[in-house]
Amino acid sequence: MTIRSFMFVPGDSEKKLGKADALGADALILDLEDAVAPARKPAAREMVPAFLAARPPAARQAQLWVRINPLATPEALADLAAVVPAAPDGIMIPKADGPADVARLSHYLDALEVQAGLERGGIRILPVATETAKAPFALGDYAAARLERLYGLTWGAEDLSSAIGASGNLGPDGEWTLTYRLVRSLTLLGAHAAGVEAVETLYVDFGDPDGLLASSRAARAEGFSGRIAIHPSQVAAINEAFTPSVAEVDGARRVIAAFEAEPDAGTVQLDGRMLDIPHLNQARRTLATHEKYR
Ligand code: COA
Ligand code: MG
């Protein structure tokens, strides 16, 4: 199931956890990492498993993911030991250096799933794959790594700027500077090379719904299938942007019909434009996405 909206909820906030079911997100990410102050981490590590346990997998409206602390910290294992018995749908791993980190997490999950009596391999993994200086160089390596739990790749700009000693990541025009556009594109390509989802990063200005909608539509047009949300007001726009529009669905149906009218042709024309097999595949993907969300 493709996830359009991944909504972050700080794992130590009783108030925000209390609202999370009603947000309409395809997935929640219950955070144990940077949205939680160090002194609150032990509390979050109890609250998140309790939230999960109160919503067993069969009763879940949204997928329930957990962002753990980076594998390089001692908190990561404590996080996993606390949450896996409550059967999260997935684990987001921040500051991953590359596929070796995902493989390591996957081995931990193998053992913890067996211990908890869960189906082995059920918990998926989404790395934030650009948050260290090393990470961008490994984006092409996910494809060869055969990581069965890998749901997708996502990227983040804030931790990367901090990792490279940058004082900012936006140019005078308000757009990402080259380094961040580069890692964004490599995330997109690396995800598709690995046959997994590309998940767009968050839109930090949650007071700008029009900007969020436009940039999310642009991301979907480029090949991203979902996006991180950080505020309840962002969920509906993200779901909308990553659902094919009526016009797109109509166009996809016409492309498929044009090929069906000429079953032996590898290339056909529609409204004076050439169509070949990649267009047909794209149209089928659009319809499949539409069927899923209607
Ligand atoms: N999950 C659930 N509920 C949330 C929420 C979230 N992530 N963010 C805000 N809400 C609730 C608020 O509690 C508030 O409820 P109320 O109307 O009953 O008071 C309502 O939605 C409106 O929130 P608002 O007052 O506009 O924002 P805020 O000042 O409470 O919080 C943020 C702003 C950015 C701190 C908050 O949205 C947040 O915590 N986002 C997630 C941040 C995060 O996890 N980051 C880590 C990844 S980068
Ligand atoms: Mg971060």
Summarize the structure.
The protein has 294 residues and is α/β, with parallel strands linked by helices. It has helices at 14-20, 41-53, 75-83, 99-116, 158-163, 178-194, 209-222, 235-241, 246-261, 277-293, and strands at 5-10, 27-31, 63-67, 90-93, 124-127, 152-154, 197-200, 226-229, 267-270, 273-276.
Widest sheet: strand ordering: 5-4-3-2-1-8-7-6
| Text of the CATH class of the largest domain | Alpha Beta
**According to CATH, what is the topology of the largest domain?**
TIM Barrel
**Total number of helical segments?**
10
Tell me, briefly, the overall form.
globular
Question: What's the mean pLDDT score?
Answer: 96
Distance between the termini: 13 Å
CATH superfamily of the largest domain: Phosphoenolpyruvate-binding domains
- Into which percent range does the helicity of residues fall? 40-55%
Class by alpha and beta content: alpha/beta
Query: Low-confidence parts, pLDDT < 50 over ≥5 residues?
Result: none
- Please give the largest β-sheet: 8 strands, parallel
Label the CATH architecture of the largest domain: Alpha-Beta Barrel
